[in-house]
Structures are given as C-alpha cells and as structure tokens.
Amino acid sequence: MTDKSLSGRAAIAGLGVTEFSKNSGRTELRLAMEATLSALADAGIDPSEVEGFSSYTMDKVPEYEIARLLGCKNVKFFSQIPHGGGGACAPLLHAAMAVATGVAKTVVVFRAMNERSWYRFGSGTYGFGSTPIFENVNYGWYMPYGFHTPAAWVGMFAQRYMHEYGATSEDFGRVSVAVRDFAATNPAAFFYGKPITLADHQASKWVAEPLRLLDCCQESDGAVAMVITSVERARDLKQKPVIIKAGSQGIAEGQQSMTSFYREGISDLPEMGVVANELYAQSGLGPDAFQTAVLYDHFTPFVLPQLEEFGFCKRGEAKDFIRSGEHARGGKLPINTHGGQLGEAYIHGMNGVAEAVRQVRGTAVNQVADVENVLVTAGTGVPTSGIILGVA
Amino acid sequence: MAEQEWMSEVRAKVGREYGRVYAWDEVNAPMIRQWCEVMGVDNPLYTDADYAATTEFGGIVAPPAMLQAWCLEGLHANNYAPGSTDENPYEVLKTMEAHGMPSVVAVNSDLAFERYVKLGEKLYYTTKLEAIGEEKTTALGTGFFVTLIMSFFSQKPEGDEKVGQLTFRVFKFRAANVPTAAKADDKDSAPAVHKIKRPKPGMSDDTRFYWEGANAGKLMIQRCTCCSTLRHPPAPVCIKCHSFDWDTVQASGKGSVYSFVVMHYPEVPPFDYPNPVGLIELDEGVRIIAGLVGVKRDQIKIGQRVQVEFQSFDDGELILPMFRPVAA
C-alpha cells in the first residue's frame, strides 16, 4: 500500500437512520436533519465540526441548508453524485478522498427522500420536455413507445440474460425469497414478519415481463446519514470504526443510464467490473474476503451479473450459486441481510450502506458471524459505484 | 344488462322524505347585508330599510338566491340548528360508494321560488330522494344520476307555507380507467376530457434526420462519412474515429428481436396493455428500440425475424417505426 492509497485512511464513525415508511409525514429536509444529527450523536462529534458533505444529485435537500442548520462555519468540500442509485456508494468514496487528502476532516454523507409520498419513480410519467438537452433527446427513443419505467428497462437486459445463460424467473424469485427472509426478521423492514415463498413470487403479477411484482423493490420514504472522518480520529470516538478499505465509481464501454442496449453484449455489467477491479486493487482483497455483501437490488435480475462481475461465481453461473442458496441465510455469501430494497426499504441504496456498517460493527439484526469485510454496490444499469467496508 | 342486486336496496329508498333541517336564525338584516356585500349585490331593496318601505313589500326582503343559506350548518360540518333531523339524505350515495363508485360530481342545482321571504321569518327544509336514473356511462365514468329535492318552508301559526325549492342532482360513479374524449352526441356527458397523446420524442440537430425519415416512412441510420461506421442512437461524433462528418443511409427495415419486454403495469394513458417493446438488431448491425405489433405476448422469441412498418398516432402528429414478425 502506498501513501497515495485511499484504503484504510477514512472510517465511518457515525450512523443515523430515520424510520422507513410509505409516508414519512414530514419534509425531506427534516428527515435529512434527523438522520444527520443522529449520525453525529452516534459518533460523538459536535455538528459544528462538519467540514464537508456528499449526497446524490437527485437529493432535493441542499447541503448548504444542512450546514446552516448544523451551525457549520468552515465547510470546504461538497459534492453530489449523479445517476440515482448508482450514487449509493460514491458519496462515501468522495468523503473518504476528502478526508484522506485533508481537505475536510469530517464529512457527512446523506440521502433523504419522500420518494413514495412525493414522487414515485415507477409511475411512468416524467417531465421530459421538448428542449434539445441530452436527456430529453435520449429518452425520446423510449418515451413515445411507453417504454418508460425502470422495471421495463431492466427487463430488457434480464430477458437477454435469461436467453444466454438459462436463468429463469424462478432464479430471480430465489433472490427475492432470500432477502424477504431477512426482512422478515428485521423490525425496521417494511416487510417485517412477512416472508414469501417461491410460489408467491411466481404467482405475483407481471409488471414488465420478465419482471414480476416481487422482482421489484419498494418505494419508500426515509433518510440515512453517516459521518466520515480519519481512522485515527475514529479510534478515539464512541463507536467501533468502520474502515473504508476501497471505493470506486464505474463507467464502462458503451455506458448509458438504464439504456445501455447498444453494447456488443447486454448480459453483463461491465461498469460493475470496473468497480470490482478497482476495489480489489485498492484493498488487496478478493472475492473470498467477504462474509456478507450488500448487492443493489432495485430489481432482482441484476443481482445475478453482480455476483459474476465480482467473481463470486463464473460468468453465467450466478443462477447455480443462487439455486444452491449461497446468497441466502446460512449460505456462503448471505446478501442484503437487512432485507434489501426489496424487503427493508428503498432509500436509493444508502440503507444498504447502513447495513454494511452494522455488519462490521457487529450490531446487525441478522448479524453474520465474524464479519471482517463487507462489499457494498450501488445502482445497476447506470454509472455506478461500490465500496468495501471492514474492521481495522 | 341486469342491474346489480344491491341497487334494489338503493331503489327502495326512492321517494323517501327526510326530516326537517332548521335555520339557526330567523331571516335578519345583518346576514342579508353581509351576503349582499360578499356577492356584490347592491339592490337597496335588500339593505336600505327606508327605500324598502316605499316598495310593494313594505320593508326589507331577503334575496331569493340566498334561500339555501338560511338553513346551512355554518362553519363547522354537521352543526345543524337544534331540532334538525340527523337522517342523511345522502345515505344512498354511501351505499353506491361501498359498491365501487367512489366519485361524485354535482351536475344540477336549480332553485325555484314561491315568494320573497321577509325579516323575522323562521325557515326549515325537508328533503326527498326524488329519483335515481338508469346506469349511465359518460366521459367521466359509469354510474347513476341521483336527484334530491329540498323544499323550504316558513313556520306559521296557521300552517307552514312553502317558499321555494332546490333540485340538486349529482352523478355518483366509478371513474373511467382511461380518460377519453366525450362523444359530441352524448348529452349526459361532462365536458370532454383532454385526450392524452403519446409523448413526442425529444429532438436535436444530431437526431432530427431519424424522425424526419420516419415521417417519410423511411428508417434512417447515421453513418460516419470518414470510416463508414453505422451508429445508433445518433451522436454528433463517430464512436470509432471521432470524425464529426456524417450522413445517413436508409435501412432495409429487416432485423431480428435481440431482446424484448412486455409492459403490464402501471397502465399509463394512452398506451394499450400489455405493451410489447423490442430491442431490434437491424440487419445492418445497429440496434433500436421500437414497439412490436402483430404479436401475442407469450409468443415473442429472441431471434424472431421482424420487419419495420410505420404507424401513425394522434391524428398523424407522431409517426413511429414499429416492428412486425415475418417468416425467417
């Protein structure tokens, strides 16, 4: 490891989450403040010490307002990550870089949204206007056909993946059943106490064939925030430090956002391959180093190529990994032990990062034994990101 | 179509009279003055006692249109004057609601007057469930017209005297799933609902040729004039050689299904569901997204040969390439 490496320089020292719901009944700013203040209290860091922020471009809560309400006087770093859930891990990467380079000693990352009660990403209605900015023109290839929901875009990749590798709707269902099993024992999950069977999955209605209702994540309100500071400082704080061992964003050849249909093949996730290579290079770790992982699960089909891109199994063999139950409770690599976005809540992946923090601390409700390293990935089908969190 | 069984329970109530609802206050000058002020009525007959004394009425009378105001509940809901009935003339609407007709719209409110009412008169009204029409489908949805008649009386020692009545009609209905334009000859329909059109594609200088080609019934592909690489979606620069020079070529329109989805939910107007959409690999080598026609949702196969055809939407405002299966 060289001095320039990011690995092991910064740590997550505080975690704050609100409850997750279908209608928070309060503003996003309030959710963000509740999570942020809770994270700072968890760390034992005074709010006035915060020097940086990172969130998503899609987050409607500006960092300056959080800074104003926290009473920050010396904010030197702020960034926002585009591409929706693809930004789930990148704020941690940005925060770690700011801390490692000394630009900001303490950084808050956050995501606060009333997605369910205020917007609903899956509604199929968007305000794509007529001005020739890139996004309007780009989605012009799809909107006139009513090809306009994330589930449908993912379905296009999933259909081809099934065709090439022999994966089935039941394999997607096995992902859903396993995470709902974890959600069933997580009191913070929307589907707490409500496990499903593969038959339930197969009986659920079509949303966008080959995706059924139970292949699709929820829509949720809620917020998550974390406090990142140097590993040295984190050691003197209240909580067991959660070390950021690697972080990367990823764009690969032929990348678009949800519509990378024009690549040579569409059955893999090469941008996740970019992230995997960088994470392994930074950390010196490999697929065997993880006791659990949080793999982005807005829709079940993309969990399979993620397992392949990170080398947990060979190309096209994720279905076998899943049929053996290796991703489920008691398997070789239990994934999404909080219940995932399918079972706990859809907070754009940030609730998955929160679960990884708890697994490293040893405080998860579905705690995996002897956790040393946890992989977390961000949104699939979009320019994405990933991090490795672990014990010192 | 035979009427639903639960409607007989509703129809049994037609003709029923509901009890009295009393006015909180006798007809009085301050309320009349305020009503006139709010409504912008400046007729001195209602507000100027000296003037009113010189008229055939011999004093102030209430504006006839104010009739309903005397017996209203006031600021707080269901706060009716003492002695008023607690029967609800709208009970049939609740029954209809329980059977899948949650929406309501008021369609008629007709006031008729027997005479002017004077200061000091004490009013009440009774309600009759006058009629429930046959099931109707309008542009708003399917349901029933329900007519109530409220008769207003003035209390008199020699026998109460009717002073006017209000005929109030509502349409209680299940909203149509897809808003459609009302037919011009449908007299019962509400004003036409705005017809929802397909979203128009965003266009730029890099992509306009494609949509102009579609309007002319041609499927056009962008080509680099430097290295001849075809590309879609169109872009200002070649992905291979980075030349900004390009022209277009007309595609054969033949290709095969590389992947597809069949959209079911949510159902968003104006699209029909299930809605099959294909990722088509053209024989020239590029892929495009387009709707599939002439296919059953469970018979689409990857590799299926398809041929382009151009379909017109929204009275010719939008021409889209669509693909139809053809023999291999």
Automatic annotation (TrEMBL), chain A:
Gene Ontology terms, MF aspect:
acetyl-CoA C-acyltransferase activity
> Which Pfam families does this UniProt record tie to the protein?
Thiolase_C_1
Chain ranges of the Thiolase C-terminal domain: 274-382
CDD domains named among the record's database cross-references? SCP-x_thiolase
Give the highest taxon in the source lineage: Bacteria
The UniProt transmembrane annotation reads none
* Name of the protein: Lipid-transfer protein
| Organism, as annotated | Thauera terpenica 58Eu
State the organism's lineage. Bacteria, Pseudomonadati, Pseudomonadota, Betaproteobacteria, Rhodocyclales
UniProtKB/TrEMBL annotation, chain B:
The organism's superkingdom is given as Bacteria
| InterPro entries reported in the protein's UniProt record | ChsH2_C, ChsH2_Znr, FAS1-like_DH_region, HotDog_dom_sf, NA-bd_OB-fold, Thioester_dehydratase-like
Q: Which residues form the ChsH2 C-terminal OB-fold domain?
A: 249-311
- Positions of the ChsH2 rubredoxin-like zinc ribbon domain: 211-246
A Pfam family recorded for this sequence: OB_ChsH2_C
| Sequence ranges assigned to domain FAS1-like dehydratase in this UniProt record | 14-147
The record ties this protein, via PANTHER family, to: BLR3430 PROTEIN
Name of the featured protein: DNA-binding protein
Task: Please report the organism this UniProt entry assigns to the protein.
Answer: Thauera terpenica 58Eu
Q: What is the lineage of its organism?
A: Bacteria, Pseudomonadati, Pseudomonadota, Betaproteobacteria, Rhodocyclales
